């Protein structure tokens, strides 16, 4: 399996930007819409242990990822999966330590991945 066809996960830390409630109301709605609600800091790029075309492995992997990483951190973690092989994972800054758990999970499943070839698909 080549890394160029594998899913890649970008891990970002998210900081919510406090809204400035003081100040004049002369700024229009168009200016308010431009103010970011959060900032993001790049933490890591991880190569996931399956290729873009392998939807069964993707589903199985994310079921396990949800159970072990996401559910215990519900409300502080979110991700989006694109069809072109990119996964963007956002972690609340208060759960920064979870980034190392995600890294360990990905590394652990890469090792296990070679043993899972004969398992039935979901």
Automatic annotation (TrEMBL):
Lineage top rank: taxon: Eukaryota
Gene3D superfamilies referenced in this protein's UniProt entry, alphabetically: YML108W-like
Biased composition (Basic and acidic residues): 19-37
Pfam families (UniProt xref): DUF1892 (PF08987)
Disordered: region residues: 18-37
InterPro entries registered for this protein in UniProt: DUF1892, YML108W-like_sf
Protein name in the entry: LAME_0G13608g1_1
Native organism: Lachancea meyersii CBS 8951
């Amino acid at each position: 399996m080549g890394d160029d066809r594998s899913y890649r996960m970008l891990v970002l830390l998210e900081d919510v930007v406090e809204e400035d409630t003081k100040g004049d109301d002369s700024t229009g709605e168009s200016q308010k819409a431009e103010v970011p609600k959060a900032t993001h800091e790049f933490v890591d790029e991880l190569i996931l242990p399956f290729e873009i075309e392998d939807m069964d492995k993707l589903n199985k992997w994310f079921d396990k990822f949800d159970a072990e990483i996401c559910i215990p951190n519900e409300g502080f973690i979110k991700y989006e999966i694109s069809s072109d092989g990119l996964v963007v994972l956002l972690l609340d800054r208060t759960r920064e330590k979870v980034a190392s758990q995600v890294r360990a999970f990905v590394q652990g499943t890469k090792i296990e991945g070679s043993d899972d070839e004969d398992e039935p698909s979901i």
